[in-house]
């Protein structure tokens, strides 16, 4: 007799070959089968115009019990509306055969993007762009030609370049999601990415600048500014000789561009890059000396107010004087927020000769200095916008010399 219980991650883990089948207790017709070799598949049984249909939802290696449940609900709803989902799947497969083999970029543009637009129009195009840029080497591949070995090789190369495990995992999971939809839609029978296991991310990694590195970073910022000023002077001297209109002088402004105020703000507030690039001048209170991060722009989706110390306040005051008509603190062309700061950041690090330090680590640097100054972890949590103190506890392990000094107080 088939087992009757809710199909969950736990029940699937406990599923044995001798059980053969689990009938879900909540969704009529939703069930899982296990083969003699231990492979598990999800199905939806339904009746349509007198015929019995067992619709395959997917392989347990490709989709989770929750995804299978959601898919079962969706397909049951379509059947209730008078659609034979099995027949639809068959036609989709026939269409795929007619079109021979679908290549990844064609699938992303013609199938996956329209689907994503129905889910979240704000992120749809960004997801497609992410896949095409990060997995450019797959863009001449057909969907069923993408192998786990290729992804493992790509992942290894990314790790050697110092990319964070969480970042790599996010990219791989995004590709997995796209291919799992192709499986659901019957475009391919399965994909190999289930073999690519998640890298265990070390969330305790905290990289901050020591005193010497911070001095070098600050010097590098000024050196970059000076090089840009010199380049502008040279360009204007060249144009003056030829009676060309000169570029605006950079000699009488505090900042040559957004880079220095952006870095100073990050070092003194702990803002995430995305939070800073989405800030508008209306979020800054110069009279009360604080910046408000709106909930919609925060990772935790909770707004917070961060006070401005003297360095951050002075930097923003000067930067505002140079950008009196802009809407955003850090604008790109056509009045839209900047999207990326990789190139100038890389230049600063190169000038400072600092290795293994990401822009996000400025956030760690801010937190570390607070902890080393004796600020309690809960206050640090509030300033960083962590929803859980567990994330902030990583900073409790900072700077062994400070802990040693504390112990020596009673030595």
TrEMBL record:
Residues 237-408 form the Tyr recombinase domain. InterPro entries: CB, DNA_brk_join_enz, Integrase-like_cat_sf, Integrase_catalytic, Integrase_DNA-bd_sf, Integrase_DNA_bind_dom, Integrase_recombinase_N, Phage_Integrase. GO terms for biological process: DNA integration; DNA recombination. Coiled coil: none annotated. PROSITE patterns: CB, TYR_RECOMBINASE. The keyword Glycoprotein does not apply. Residues 103-183 form the Core-binding (CB) domain. It comes from the Bacteria. The keyword DNA-binding applies. Keywords: DNA integration, DNA recombination, DNA-binding. CDD domains: INT_Rci_Hp1_C. GO terms for molecular function: DNA binding. Belongs to the 'phage' integrase family. This is Integrase. It comes from Enterovibrio norvegicus FF-454.
């Amino acid at each position: 007799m088939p087992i009757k219980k809710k199909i969950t991650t736990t029940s699937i883990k406990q599923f044995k070959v001798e059980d053969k089948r689990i009938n879900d207790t909540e969704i009529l017709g939703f069930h899982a089968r296990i083969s003699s070799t231990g492979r598990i598949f999800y199905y939806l049984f339904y009746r349509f115009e007198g015929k019995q249909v067992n619709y395959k939802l997917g392989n347990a290696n490709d989709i989770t019990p929750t995804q299978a449940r959601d898919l079962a609900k969706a397909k049951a709803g379509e059947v209730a509306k008078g659609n034979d989902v099995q027949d639809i799947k068959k036609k989709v497969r026939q269409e795929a055969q007619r079109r021979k083999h679908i290549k990844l970029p064609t699938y992303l543009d013609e199938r996956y993007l329209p689907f994503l637009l129905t889910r979240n129009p704000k992120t749809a195009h960004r997801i497609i762009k992410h896949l095409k840029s990060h997995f450019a080497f797959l863009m001449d591949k057909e969907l069923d030609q993408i192998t786990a070995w290729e992804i493992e090789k790509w992942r290894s190369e990314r790790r050697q370049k110092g990319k964070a495990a969480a970042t790599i995992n996010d990219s791989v999971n995004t590709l997995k999601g796209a291919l799992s939809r192709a499986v659901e839609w019957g475009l391919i029978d399965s994909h190999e990415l289930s073999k690519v296991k998640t890298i265990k991310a070390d969330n305790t990694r905290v990289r901050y600048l020591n005193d010497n590195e911070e001095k070098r970073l600050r010097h590098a910022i000024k050196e970059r500014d000076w090089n840009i000023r010199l380049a502008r002077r040279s360009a204007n001297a060249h144009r003056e000789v030829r009676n060309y209109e000169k570029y605006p002088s950079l000699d009488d402004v505090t900042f040559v561009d957004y880079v220095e105020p952006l870095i100073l703000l990050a070092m003194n507030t702990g803002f995430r890059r995305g939070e800073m690039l989405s800030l508008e001048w209306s979020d800054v209170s110069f009279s009360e000396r604080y910046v408000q991060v709106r909930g919609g722009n925060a990772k935790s989706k909770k707004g917070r107010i961060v006070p401005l110390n003297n360095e951050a306040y002075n930097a923003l005051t000067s930067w505002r004087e140079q950008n009196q008509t802009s809407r955003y603190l850090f604008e790109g062309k056509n009045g839209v927020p900047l999207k990326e700061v990789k190139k100038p950041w890389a230049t600063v690090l190169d000038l400072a000769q600092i290795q293994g330090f990401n822009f996000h680590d400025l956030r760690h640097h801010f937190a570390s200095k607070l902890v080393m100054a004796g600020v309690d972890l809960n206050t640090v949590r509030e300033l960083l916008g962590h929803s859980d103190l567990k994330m902030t506890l990583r900073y409790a392990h900072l700077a062994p010399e400070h802990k040693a000094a504390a112990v020596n107080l009673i030595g």
